Amino acid sequence: MAIQNPPVSQTKSFSTVFLIEMWERFGFYGMQVLMVTYMVKKLGFADVDANLVWGAASALIYATPAIGGWIGDKFLGSRRTMLSGAVVLMVGYALLWIPTNNAYALYLALGVIILGNGLFKPNAGNLVRKIYEGDEVKIDSAFTIYYMAVNVGSTISMLLTPWIRDYVGEHYGDALGWHTAFGVCSIGLILGLINYYFMRRTLAHIGSVPDYEPPKAKNILGVVVGGFVIIAVSAYILQNQSVAQLCVYAAGIVILGIFVHLIRSSEPGERAGLIAALVLTIQTIFFFIFYQQMSTSLNLFAQRNVDLSFGIFGFEIFRWIPEQFQSLNAIWIVILSPILVWIYNSLGKHGKDFPVAAKFALGFAAVAAGFFMYGLGATTAVNGAISSWYMVWGYGLYSLGEVLVSGLGLAMIARYVPARMGGFMMGAYYVASGVAQYMGSVVANYAAIPDNITDPLQSLPIYTSLFNKLGFVGVGCTVIAVAMLPLMRKLSANHALAALPPIPPVHNEDL
């Protein structure tokens, strides 16, 4: 570990990263919860176009951290790059704050946000890892708390920004309502940066090699020029869906091809682990297709076909704004994560913990049940609106699946991939997840509602048809995952016999 002079506790250093991460997630999810609805309701996008634009943005948001991590390690330093990312994100949300209905302004703002996310995310996680470097007992607990920051920040913002949008819109005009809500996301980053300024001493001894050297002018210039290129390319891709499709599907083919090449050219002892990683990565891609429905089809479903009142025995307790239903995902994860950790630890103490592949199968079963829940709600719908409680339980089942599948994704890479291939495989996993997000938006368009349909009784069967089909796909994924268990057990056994050095611990919060 780095020498600390004067001594600074790990807790104080961790708190600095924890707080700026919390505000960063506050800004990101506060923007995400409104984005598709903003494009549909304010900019006049058709459902199809809004879903695909956000799908392309999601794919780029997942892909750019691979570049940001490289910049942090080789050129600017993890600490400087994280801070730069936070500033860029603040600017991106501030661009959305500007009251304009110009679609090109949206593409530019999203391009800036894509760049900022790429710079911020991998380096914030890397700093947490460096704070607890060599202390494997504390690092898992630290990342658990870190993950809580993600979900606390996202929950608050997903509940707050739709309310701000409605409140300001009602009193000062609809246009100002939307842009003020986005502005709150920028204010969140400003608060995070102010907090970082006062606590910066606690991270002075933490970082990658370039953090301890004066920044080189050529490196700064290269990053700035590269940043503008990323923004311009991202904005171009977002407004040209044919280009977006070409890029996304080409990336998927390239990743699959490289995976096959690595398996064929690997040492015999490495091959079993790589095949196991490929199988589980493909299953993870299917999961992210389901995941993308939250901000697309499920979000628009809540706008049109959900009773916003929460009641018990005929008495209304409270009402929600349609976008706020997306916060159920984060709320359920906060509830379910410690329960699952306790179960894993209890089973592990008795040597009965089940393998990652079995957890994937259970996760897909939970996701399938979650989507069937929305179809079940349609059977008791009143005037085309299902009870809000079906959304609660549907999101709950889905979130259980997320914790079982997505939460184990990077752990799977660390377990099965040889250390010498770790960096590449981690980047490939992120890009594959981004490809899946775009594919999820394509799937969401099977429930795109034509402009001439405004009656909830007409839109309800369109949505529930998609959700039921996704439920059956989830069942299919479960069956395949169960059928693969014997092969996965064999591959895991062969991998264990090879006794390859593992990759250092990784956590899905790095996303």
TrEMBL record:
Subcellular location: Cell membrane
InterPro entries, per database record: Dipep/tripep_permease, MFS_trans_sf, MFS_Transporters, POT_fam
Keyword check for Metal-binding: no
CDD domains per UniProt: MFS_DtpA_like (cd17346)
Origin: domain of life: Bacteria
Pfam families: PTR2 (PF00854)
Keywords in alphabetical order: Cell membrane, Membrane, Peptide transport, Protein transport, Transmembrane, Transmembrane helix, Transport
Name of the protein: MFS transporter
